[in-house]
Amino acid sequence: MHIYSQLFAVLAFGEAFALAATTKAKTCTTSLTPKYAAPSLASGYVARLVATGLTTPRSIKFDTNGALLVVESGVGVTALTLDESNPSCVIEKSRKVVVANNALNHGLELSPAGTTLYASDTGSAYAWSYSASKQSATSRKTIINNMTNSDHTTRSLLLPKSAPGVLVVSRGSNSNLDPTSENISSGTAQVKAFNITNIKQPLGFTSSGKLLGWGLRNDVGLAEEPKGGGIYTVENSADQITRNGVDIHNTNPSEEMNFLGYLNGKSSPNQGRNFGYPECFTAWSPSTIPAFKGKVGQQFAIGTIGPGNNDKLCSNKYKQQAALGFHPHMAPLSILFNPSGDTGWVTFHGSWDSTVPVGYKLSQVDFAKGAPVQPSNSTTAAIDIMSNANTANCYNTTCFRPVGLAWDKNGNLFMSCDTTGEVYVILRTDGKPTNSPRSS
């Protein structure tokens, strides 16, 4: 059973503290207050602001001394020193710019020993020698290059624990509907894995690496499922799509969770396949797709349907379908698993291409045996944990827009919000770590 219900109550921060005081979570009198309506939390959770005033914070990662490393897009990498003496009341003590580089925009990783820092800009991924005690990064070298393209410019990074010495890199497409991505040699709309052990020269993205998947429009979120070692992504799908001249963009296509196989020696038929983009997309609302006979989770062709452009060419025989779909335009940007592998946490940054705002929230997806519990045709796989008080008004007023996720040493969940320049911590009100197994 879940510890939360799927019903939401808007918890003002004072009310959240009162709730915490009646449980094992301690009262926090030093928390910051957001400059917008307090977020809504699912029963059993409380969220508290840890830091404000950051410049477009994106990916986050804890170093071995407990400092939170933050990519501030357009600034570089910043270390936040936190006071976690009371895990229920984390506060920022100080911050320091570790890497001053205004080209860095999203990607961030740290080696298992905590001595090598990785970050990326639109064209390259870099490595620095990192000292957690000094909060300093030195001796930069380029490890992956030749990734520059327009539109989708973030280059997400992942170091899978099951494959030491391997760096996974996601590269998006050149545009909303990018015809160059139909060519596997373009290198766009792809996720690849690179052996970066003892490299002497930068590895070219297009010419090097192991292809995990292509036809992946903009898979910003990367994660390794901890029990089986499967590589999962979350994808931002296309905007403004039509079919047979009918605008269907409000209800299709789904955002996606994709399974790209393994890097630990296990085999998977998914690995290296084409996932459909820019020809095929995942159905969220089949009834609104003209002349479509498929179901939720199946792929469909866009544009004018005919002999050379039809849904048969989008079947799983030719294109790998998504593991799960999410409501169109919610813009998933991160996925992070708990250690038991029974929960994947997903940030939904929020829409621009939807008549009614959607996303702007943090959700959970239930997993078991290395795969989502819900089938690929589910429309209820995302279980909302933290959302804006009035998402329907997010086009007209300030809302938090979540991006990065990280676990601290206590098992509590930290989340960056880029447009508001914030970092939150999400706690369980029963005092257990946020990353506890789902059944606990």
TrEMBL record:
Name of the protein this chain belongs to: Pyrroloquinoline quinone-dependent pyranose dehydrogenase beta-propeller domain-containing protein
Top-level taxonomic group: Eukaryota
Keyword tags: Signal
Domain Pyrroloquinoline quinone-dependent pyranose dehydrogenase beta-propeller intervals: 39-428
Keyword Signal among record annotations: yes
Signal peptide limits: 1-20
Record's keyword annotation contains Signal: yes
Record organism: Neohortaea acidophila
InterPro entries named among the record's database cross-references: 6-blade_b-propeller_TolB-like (IPR011042), Beta-prop_PDH (IPR054539), Quinoprot_gluc/sorb_DH_b-prop (IPR011041), SMP-30/CGR1_Lactonase (IPR051262)
